[in-house]
Every structure is written in C-alpha cells, then in structure tokens.
## 1
Amino acid sequence: MEDIVILGSTGSIGTQACDVARLHKIRVRGLTGHTNTRLLEKQAREFHPDCVCVSDEQFYGDLKQRLADTDIRVLSGMEGLCEVASLHSAHTVLNALVGMDGLLPTLSAVEMGKKVALANKETLVAGGELVMHAARENGAEVLPVDSEHSAIFQCLQGNTINRVRRLILTASGGPFYGYTPDDLRRVTLEDALRHPNWSMGAKVSIDSATLMNKGLELIEAVRLFDVAPDQVDVVIHRESIVHSMVEYEDGAVMAQLGTPDMRLPIQYALLYPQRLPSPAEPLSLTQCASLTFAQPDEGTFSCLPVCREAVRKGGTAPAFVNGANEAAVALFREGQIGFSRIGELVSGALEKILQEGVQPLTSVSDVLQADAAAREYVYSRTEHSLNGKG
Ligand code: MG
C-alpha cells in the first residue's frame, strides 16, 4: 500500500480518510488543518507523520508547542501546504481542502508526478485546464473522491475503447427540493446546513442547497473525463443510492450504487484499483424499496445553468463564477446576506464576465486574478447590505 498525505485532515472528508487509513494501516506521511490544532495534534500523535501544517499562520506557535516533544516538523501557511503536497516520502496526496485554497497544493503534487485523490472540486472548476495539462505533462494521475465522479470513474473501468454518449450526474436535490423562489427567501443558515442524506462540511452543504454543488460537479466532470459540457446531464435522485451513471454509445447505462457514505469513494481513490472491505454499511435494496429520478428545477436553482454556461464559455468564466460563489457563501454564513442572494450573485457574476469578455487561462495567476475579481464584484454588489446590517 502506498504512503499518503492528507491535506485538510481535520475536516469532514479528512477525518473519514483517517478512518480509512486506520482500517487499512496506510502510512500517513503528512497532515494539514486550517485552525483546529487540537485535532491536528491528536492525529499527529496517532499517525506519526513526517510533518504537519496548519494553514492559518496564527496557529503555528500553538501547534509547534503542542508537538514540541515529538520530532514531527511543523509548517504553516500556503507554502507549508504546498510543501506537504510535494513530500518525497508520499506517493499519494488526498486533497480535501475547502475552496480555492486547494489549487496551488494540487499543482504542487501534480508537478511532482504524485497520484492525487481529489476531493477539492474547486481546483478543477477554477483551474481544471491547467491542472489536467500539468498532470499529463508530469505523468500524474488525478483520481476523483467526489462520490459522483468516483461513480463515473468506476463505471468507466474496463471500457476505455468504447465511446461514451453521456455522463449522468445524480443530485439529491438538497434540503430545499421542491421549494419555490418565495420559499427560498425565508430559509435560514441552519436549514441550509441540514442535508438530508450526506454528512458534509458547511461549504459543500450550502452548495448542495443552492445546487451550485451540482454545477461545480458538472464542470469538474467535464475537466476530469474530457467530455463536452452538453454530454453531462443532471438528474435529481432523492435517495442518493445511485451515485452517477455512464451511458455508452449503444445505449447501455452503467451505474454505481452504494450507501451514501464518503468513506467508500475515499477508499476507492486511495486503494485503486483494489477493492477491500469498507467500514460503510452494506446496501440493502429492499430497504430503500424505490429509487426515483426527476428533472432539476433550473428556474429556481439558477446556479446549475450558470455553471453549465460558464464551462461552455471556458477560460476565466468558471473561476469567476466559483469565486463569486465562495464569497457569497461566506457572506451568507456570516449572516450578511440571505440565502436567495447567493444564486442572484452567482448569476450576476456570469453576466458580468460575459459582458467584460472571457479570457483564456494561461497561468495560475490568471485563475487567481479571475477569482479575486469575482470576490470584488460580490463585495461591491453587497456593500449596501453589509453597511445596513452591521
Ligand atoms: Mg458530490
């Protein structure tokens, strides 16, 4: 089994990756967290990695002190994250960072020719063309951890010579399935964080509630599997049992099913191509009784069509839309804007970038600039409500 590092080990995906590493005795060479030094210390004492990194530099002193009696190297900041991502002792990098912070560490790992198990979808959304190009150049493998993309990846096994007609992404529909725009104006942060099937971090839970998550996953699928945007369909599947599907040229549709437990796709990416026993509950089809499928309501949940249009345009458009969403979600979590404003701001961001003209992506700095400009746009559009609410 190959040695790994876990970027974002204190988050929802990260702690579940630690479960998988513990179960299969996978050697963990590096761990990183954002601010939770208590948990980082606990994980470091359990797994004895070569180094740990806390990305918020304010917590460097605290972590250093906690691990003073060990020989574990302590790092901090984005530089530290990139150093852990390119550690010589590890063959596989699990990237479970949240948001755009995942981009540079992914590139570091890919440039070192590592196998990257990618749970950070923003990496592929904003900088997908650059990341996949660098992966090809350096012989690095990018394996999906997102459950939908893991499902597609599993359905593609053994079918390399056959032409894919469509990828079908399933979406749970989130906590607000069936809501009208009016209903959405009344929902709270607490409502948005209550996902019906999956236990996830706050950012992805809110993205699931707006369907932005499915839009980001559509872009992710286009980059990862090199298909046209119009070859990716989204269907609502409330039960989250069918994790996604691939339709081949002859009309055959392959699906991957399982209980909604992220440890399954995490383990598949880490152990690929092996399948070993998993901590997840086995699937009982008679217990779920029925599996349902429906069209998403793209009029009410505008983030999904916005993402489809952004990836059709390519270049800086996906990074811009993603940056606007990250800024809007942060403001919503701070109580500065209502839930409905997220979709409005993301739609407004697409209009803005189309008006200004989409630019081609030639370097990371193009991605970071588009991201910064999008955040700027969101702040300029919400200044009024920020001042008003205080
Ligand atoms: Mg997903």
## 2
Amino acid sequence: MILDIVTYPDPRLKQVSQSVGVITDEIRELAANMLETMYAAPGVGLAAPQVGKNIRMLVMDESAQEEKKHPRVLVNPVLTFLGEEVVSEQEGCLSVPMNYRADVVRKSMVHLNALNIDGSVIDEDLEGFGAIIVQHEYDHLDGILFIDKISRLRRSLYDSKVKKWLRRKNAV
Ligand code: ZN
C-alpha cells in the first residue's frame, strides 16, 4: 500500500522519534508499505516520520533506480560518523516540497548498528552513496531535514517560496 508522505512544514517532521520495542506484524507491514511508497515516489530512502509514524525505522535502496533492487530496512539505527567531510550534491527529500535541492556537507563514511526487520543485527561500515542516504534518513529520526543544514540565506529564500506555494495550493 502506498502511504501519504508528510511534507514540510508539517510539525511531525520536527519530532524526535521513539525506538522500536518489538518488531511486530504491524511494524513489518509498515516497513513493506514504506518500501513500496519509496519506490513509487520514486526515491532512494524513506524514514518512518515521513509517513506520519514517529518511530526509529527507515528504508533505503541505493539501487532503487536500477533494475536489480536492494531494499533495506533499518530498525533503531545508530550511526557513528567516520571519514572525511564530503559535499552531498543537490540533495533532495520526498518531504521537502517543490523538488528543492541543495548541497549538504556530510561524512564520507559511517558505522551502522541497527536491526534488520527480521531482528538480526546489522553491524557494518557504509561508504559512498549508501553512507549519504543513511545519514539523511537518520536525521529524519531526530527531526532534522536537510534544509536545516543549509545557509540561513538559502533557507529563508526557500521558506518564502514554500509560503507562496502553500498559499496558492490552499487557494485552489
Ligand atoms: Zn528526506
């Protein structure tokens, strides 16, 4: 089932999400729906708060645009930031309207601890595009959007565009 994606400035995107206690059938169904929603969007990652569930779970697939898919579900992820600072060019987000994109400084490598949807332990290093995606989605679990990481000037320009866009949208 494709879920509705919560968009900025919805206050639910600013909440710090709660850890998942037990991986229930409901959680497994949510993960499957999140993957379906991510592929349909289309996107390469989606965090639970983006579909209105403030729990620490995210899905991602760095090969989402390719024929062979590699879906991943991360429950209660914990990142350790490693590597050097890199510029994630023209980052975007399914929850940030108007297909807005900007460069964001991230780390080239992270160490990831998490649970799989089957409860097995994930303990690995991620580099490259995978590392960028997981940092972006992980931020969502702490109520942070990539537009929180751009300059104040860019942010205020974007906010005024969004306000105009919302006014137009609500007038229809
Ligand atoms: Zn996002």
